[in-house]
Amino acid sequence: MAKTLVIVESPAKAKTIEKFLGKSHYTVKASVGHVRDLPKSTLGVDIDNNFEPRYINIRGKGDLIKELKKEAKKAKRVYLATDPDREGEAISWHLAYILGIDENDECRIEFNEITKDAIKKAIKNPRNIDLKLVDAQQARRVLDRLLGYQISPILWAKVRKGLSAGRVQSVTTKLICEREREINDFVPKEYWSLEIEGKTKDNENITFKFISYNNEKIELNNEEEVNHILENIKNEKLVVEKIESKTRRKSAPKPFTTSMLQQEAANKLSFTTKKTMMVAQELYEGVDIEGEGTVGLISYIRTDSKRISDEAKEKAKTYIIDDLGEKYYKEHKEKKDNKEKKKVQDAHEAIRPTSVFRTPDSIKSSLTRDQFKLYNLIWRRFVASQMEDSLFDVLTVDCKIGNALFRASGSVMKFDGYTKVYNFTERQDKILPPIAENDELEVNKFLPNQHFTQPPARYTEASLVKTLEELGIGRPSTYAPTITTILNRGYVEKEGTSLHPTELGMIVTDILDINFQKFIDVDFTVQMESKLDEIEEGDIQWKDVVGEFYEPLREAIKEANEKIEKINMDEETDEICEECGSNMVIKYGRFGKFMACKNYPECKNTKPLVNKIGVKCPKCKDGEIILRKSKKGKAFYGCSNYPECDFISWNKPTGEVCKECGSYMVEKRTKSEAKEVCSNKECKAEGRILE
Which helix (H) or strand (E) holds 129? Predict the structure, then answer.
């Protein structure tokens, strides 16, 4: 008996869906992503024929295409069940072409989650392939090809082979380069804070912060200004002028969009964007759960919508009331601004668990460590989004001393609300001692402190994703691969969690900025994303957008080829080649910098570039600490005497010794400062503030 053929993108998804549909009536196969694309070896776009793409079957997929054709030929019906986004729609369009399916046939099915009910509902509601979505994908693909394949060869000729430019990757690299320049150009500015430690009549201490002087809020810029205030208030009485008590509400965060999931997973779980998306894909496609079989645990992972279906809301309500209590449930009124309505497809939801009753702890034994961590984060965020606000009693105490106003604040949690479920940081109540208006307090001491403004922090993966989203650069599905690309190209490196540009990244960005400024401009990239949205809506034709883009690009390419001079990035050193006696030079290779003989090609001696940090090894006391890279590109610090000395540290040793336990000190960076801390986790000692 002929079966219905269902084609999805991944083998894991195919396996899960086939279990839901049953093998007796359905055959489920995977396309393993795209089956047709532009050729890698040539431009693949007929510029003279209105930018017509020249698609070919992807090399290496011949056997797979034959199998799909064979299965389609004997099937009574074919359903294309690729991902519910532009890329998925384009894959279905290409599959329809290869299999000879009329694109007007109702052959396309889509679902937001891989559960039995969702799959069966999708089978009952097939639709036509949405050609507007396909056109938006084609426009993006052709635009990226025209820019990448025509600018990259200029970089090969003028800098070195293996480099690339891209509509999104080049803008992203530019953001990181601009931040580095801000840091380098930053001039610290002095400022001061002033506090008073007072004592209540019950002999309890309370610290007040300076707010204003002569009823004016002023900044304390130097020690003279602080001393002027101290001189005028040092003999005055510290009197409680006003006490204000109020309740503050804190609402639950919305459920995850793709970018917010990447940010939270980076901040809460220390996941890279690439790892987050890889683990999320596993949870979406299906995991073998004990007692249930294979089931998709979360909804579709590439979305910028915060919408939740009514059915999912109702189930969350039931769970919250039954398991946590009615006081924890909050009735939500649906609010959706016009901007979001235009931005997202209504078919998409936020990322959520497919069943709220499948709690993280109940399926922990069936998940890997990383799967559990991410599922736990997603599940808790979703449940919290449907819960009541947390409430705090906030007490504010204003004290006057002379003409200066000082303030102390305390906060006590009154009702935990959503934080009962979504709380990844320890919070302590700040309780002020008993105090009343007009109380006169004894002044224990004045606490003036000098500070200096800090340069803007380097981007982390989380803050970069947040910036890209805020600026409207790229889409949820592009953030992780964009960051991976600029790291792999050697334009950007990671130091701890911070991203900083390499010399190569700065040079390439400067070349592109001078010669192709329009095309790596943030505003231009954002406008192009808006144009893609308009194509998806059917408001404009995709080839018109490409034509408008290409004319200025062609002129810029012609000028760049003539203007840009070849850049020699080799850096001569004092180190002598052991084989021929010539000087060694620092060169750039596929995997970063290395040392090579200046006398190449006569002498082909090469060796790794050793990045010494000027610190002796704290273990063997003989070797030098050098910066190394793991196979995955992560920076770490090791001894130059390896393998005789196996010292290793993920944090940069400072060369100092802990005064409390004798361990070596390392550098720890936060958003506001860098400081020394003890490498011994059991010792909490801290050292100097580092520049």
Answer: none
